[in-house]
Amino acid sequence: MAKFVGKSFKRVEDPRFLQGKGKYVSNLQRPGMAYVAIVRSPHAHAEIKGIDASAALELDGVVAVYTGQDLIDGGVGQLPCGWVVPECKIPERWPVEPARARHVGDAVAVVVADSPYVAEDALELIEVDYEPLPVSVGARATTEYRAQQIHAEIPNNTAYAWALGDEDGMRRAFREAAHVVELDLVNQRLIPNAMEPRACMAEWDNTTEEMTVWTTSQNPHPIRLLLSGFTLGIPENKLRVISPDVGGGFGSKIFHYPEEIIVPWVARAINRPAKWVATRSESFMTDSQGRDHVTNVRMAMDATGTITGLHVQTWADQGAYLSTFAPLIPTALSITLFSGLYKIPGIWGEMKGTLTNTVPVDAYRGAGRPEASYLLERIVEKGAQKMGMDPIAFRRHNLIPADEFPYQTPVAFQYDSGNYQGLFDKLEEISGYGDLREEQKSKRAEGKLWGVGVAGCIEASGPAPSAVAGSLGSAVGLWESGTVRVHPTGKVTALTGSHAHGQGHETTFAQIVADELNIPLEDIEVVHGDTGRIPFGMGTYGSRSAAVGGSALVRSATRVREKMTKIAAHQMESRPEDVYFDDETGNIRVRGATDDGMSFFEVALAAYTAHDLPPDIEPGLEETAFFDPSNFTFPNSAHIAVVSIDRETGEVTLEKYFGVDDVGKVINPLIVDGQLVGGVAQGVGQALWEHGIYGEDGQLLTGSMMDYAMPRADRFPHIETGRIETPSPTNPLGVKGAGEMGTIAGTVTVANAVVDALAPLGVDHVEMPFTAERIWQTIQAHS
Amino acid sequence: MGVSISLNINGEARSLDNVEPRLLLVDLIREELGLTGTNIGCDTSQCGACTVHMDGLAVKSCTVLAVQADGSDVVTIEGMAEEGQLTAMQQAFWDEHGLQCGFCTPGMIMAGVKLVEGNPDISDEEIRHGLEGNICRCTGYQNIVKAMKVAAQAAT
Amino acid sequence: MAEALSLIASEDDARFLAGGHSLVPAMKLRLDAPGTLIDIGRIEGLRGIAYGSGDENDCIGPLTTHATIASSNLASALVEAAGGIGDPQVRNRGTIGGNIAHADPASDLPTVLTALGATIRVENSSSARNIEAESFFTGLFETSLGENELVTVIAVPREGAGTGSAYAKLFNPASRYAVVGACASVTLNNGVVSRARVAVGGLTPMATRCGSVEAALEGRSTDAINGASAQVASDVGDDILEDIHASAEYRLGVIPVYVERALQAACARAAG
């Protein structure tokens, strides 16, 4: 019956973007709007001793200036942390800090003006009396006893310590090991840089006391919940949060940000619509950042190269405050993946979440899972080297067999399904792996540095179920809602609590509903991103939308279909079990009958006219489902990268890239491939170029795209993709997440290729990113 | 202390008084003329989201002062599709899935039109090199390159 | 032009605005806030290339864009360098005059003009003078351009038969500026380098002429390129730039490679 699911359709959302009609927050205008700009600390750590706004207030066009204390007096609350691991210490965090700035870019005061240019002018006229304080940076260094204390209430700058796994089993494995390999590695700080800078606009109606907030968020309902319950205090039934078109998120637009509080607070204070749009420089110093783990990893093997144990200790830099989901990322989204694709009996992971005078760190595409894959696939690579085995052969030796699913790891997760040998079969096929190794031999014979990197990665996507999330520290549920509304004319509106900011839900979700209801794609409109229209929702992150949001829509569409079946059966004087949705005609017909049956429209209309409904059926045709899956889904992948290195300069060139992914059942191959290729590019970006660098003084040294190297088109070869499909049993669609797999695999695959290229020199590890200088220094040190 | 300027925007003559000399062309386009298809993605002339055509050349409108556009012909993404009929470049972006979040797309399309102009057999490498000035965070560029190649052919 | 030159002298804190691709970015980040902008962008006499004939120089107007130079018949190193500046949109607006007046140490053109032996003509409202490129660039973002002076012509020697030039650079992956850049211009006579001019940039506060490299190569065959390139260390002095993108050690370590690559390519072009 699947006429739509499984096939490539062009995206229905595209025409507006192609013609410059995207409704991004920064494009929106309201009459009489004021513009908000924010005074930000130039110091990484400083006491705010006084603020003199008198010169700014004299400037023509300046409406108001507010300090942190003004906002606190005006009723704002602290930014809460939405994921609290046991004994987690949560630092105070105000939308505008009243007394102390703790990272460069921390909000210190707010300017409101009639135009954005005047607001910027006013920023320069506000004099803040700072007393700079000593600074603490470095995920591990910040925990040392000499380090400057960042929050008085949090000793050793350590917000939490968390561990998971089988410590005894790990110790036994190392005691009995024939071989042990070890690496110290750094997963460097990244800056998300979605192309659309964050923005917020708010409008207050002082007669109805209703507030509307437009914000660049991946999850408007949770933002409304936090605004209402914690930070702004406007009741949820008087507060509407809209995330219209959002220009990319990659995790950075999940979180509740100070500006989402400041802007509506200002709109109410001045009784005028207000808007703030980040400059890119502000994005660099205020968008929650990614990664930044310092790790020691050890792996135990028996004499045959079977992995028997893994011990990981990580210090995770969380920045100056705990951003909305910060403690989740290094813990329940990272340690839980330490088993990778392998059967490893003894795994023990220890994690410390530490605080530094830097921008907060939270989920960034992959979020914890790239960090897990990076350390695991680096140490596995070293294990293969140690055993003198081909990297694919070594991995194959340790893979979880296809007949052992569901597979319970020692680190909490139970993998749903997989065919890991099949992944590598497909990878060897599309990459011509044997030929690549032959080519490498001849390149090496010519003295060239040419590396083939392999990695096999696991992901946990669609975090669930809610009860388990709660037990792991989540303050929210992780289900999703979906509403299917059939209008009397037979046209359909599908409302989802998921949010699309590039993923193409308006197309894939329409495909899902179209198949369930047997109607054309163009008869369905998918609506997302508006708390005023959608009952509730949890939004989009963790590659959850298809598995959780899509499944909710399957459920509600199925209920609609069942109701329509009953109505049609009643009207056609038949039994529901004899009624079917006919693929060919699109009609609802009685099995064996020769007439045309009823059209979809006729049944929909009948539901609304209610002239002749079965006795137990209510009028109307709309169903809402809340889907809470029984488990995560576990996408997996095997990738190969080929790099060449300029021996004289250290420049790395990515020559070839092959990725085979199993993301379960695929709804729209065109879109899934787009996600995977785009994800790979982002992962490669971390390996080769991207690095958010802080100085010892806490200054962000890569504060613009002049210094932070974004991946560009000319640095990539064609990325070849391949696919196997192992359906997930945990959702009705059989899908797994597709949004992050590429990023998770891309980084470590390229890292392994670079190390492989340098292996003839005796190199077994290089830190990322593989800048020309770092590689050159490595070559110098090894020749 | 404003300046009067006039320019042709998407074929329509417009005169504006009292333009601040420091006003950027992109802000004039977005705020004064209400054409918000041209986006601002960075503040260091790197990302290319603000690319428009000025006197027939692709330029970054965030790095041009509005007063410098006095007397110029400026075409934005809104001036591409006539009466909803997508141009070859727009159609190719759609067909080849050359966009995800859509934010870089107008700039990509404006840059792409000039990149492939008169070069129907443009290679992948030339396209990739020609996209130095446009950053996309979503797509990994692969389908953008594909779309531009298709559009280059279609334009002839 | 006369009006522009008189305005710059009379207005307070006035600055010339050419393509605006150095000044506007600085203004946006509020690193620069000139009191008065004098838009010279429409002075047609300052735009375009006048090719010389015979031994005459090619004369480039300061408002000539990088894009125009990149598709010109000027010395090949200049064409090559201009085509690698920024990106297509930047090259469509950025001008050679604005670029050299800004004198960014990571910029490509100062290196190329120094190697090619270009002459830069500057004028104020009352006088004009010619400055060798080598003495035009005086330091980090510093030139010998006087207050109220405007670059009016960049004169570049023509490349006759037997002469070739090339530019090689290590791109900064973020900004596309040169981490290091090297330019060479050579004349070959029966396989012997009869004349070599070499300059480097990116690692020194200003473009730096490399006399030792030149001396080690002149009068020798192209086999001497490798050895000559190594001499660059003695040309660049002690003031080596260092930033998050590259240490001084690395810049010094790889500059011979780029000098060599530029020399090899220049010789290949000279040999036709």
Write the layout of secondary structure elements.
The complex is a heterotrimer of chains A (783), B (156) and C (272).
Chain A: H1 14-18, E1 34-40, E2 46-52, H2 54-58, E3 62-67, H3 68-73, E4 100-101, E5 107-113, H4 116-125, E6 127-132, E7 158-165, H5 167-176, E8 179-190, E9 199-205, E10 210-215, H6 220-231, E11 239-242, H7 258-270, E12 274-277, H8 280-286, E13 290-301, E14 307-317, E15 346-354, H9 369-387, H10 391-398, E16 407-408, E17 414-415, H11 420-431, H12 433-445, E18 449-458, H13 466-471, E19 480-486, E20 492-496, H14 505-517, E21 524-527, H15 545-571, E22 579-581, E23 588-590, H16 600-609, E24 622-627, E25 636-645, E26 652-662, H17 669-688, E27 719-723, H18 741-758, H19 772-781
Parallel strand pairs in A: 1-12, 10-11, 14-15, 20-21, 26-27
Antiparallel strand pairs in A: 1-5, 2-4, 2-6, 3-5, 7-15, 8-13, 9-10, 9-12, 13-14, 16-17, 18-25, 19-20, 19-24, 22-23, 25-26
Chain B: E1 3-9, E2 12-19, H1 25-32, E3 51-54, E4 57-60, E5 73-75, H2 88-95, H3 105-116, H4 124-130, H5 142-154
Chain C: H1 2-10, E1 14-17, H2 23-28, E2 36-39, E3 49-50, E4 58-60, H3 66-70, H4 76-82, H5 88-93, H6 96-102, H7 109-116, E5 119-123, E6 128-132, H8 133-136, E7 137-139, E8 142-143, E9 150-156, E10 163-171, E11 178-189, E12 192-201, E13 208-209, H9 211-217, H10 225-230, H11 232-235, H12 248-270
Parallel strand pairs in C: 1-2
Antiparallel strand pairs in C: 3-4, 4-9, 5-6, 5-9, 7-8, 10-11, 11-12, 12-13
Which features would summarize this protein structure in a list?
heterotrimer, B: 156 residues, alpha+beta, Ubiquitin-like (UB roll), DNA polymerase, domain 1, 2 domains, five-stranded mixed beta sheet, 5 strands, 31% helix, C: 272 residues, Uridine Diphospho-n-acetylenolpyruvylglucosamine Reductase, domain 3, Enolase-like, domain 1, five-stranded antiparallel beta sheet, four-stranded antiparallel beta sheet
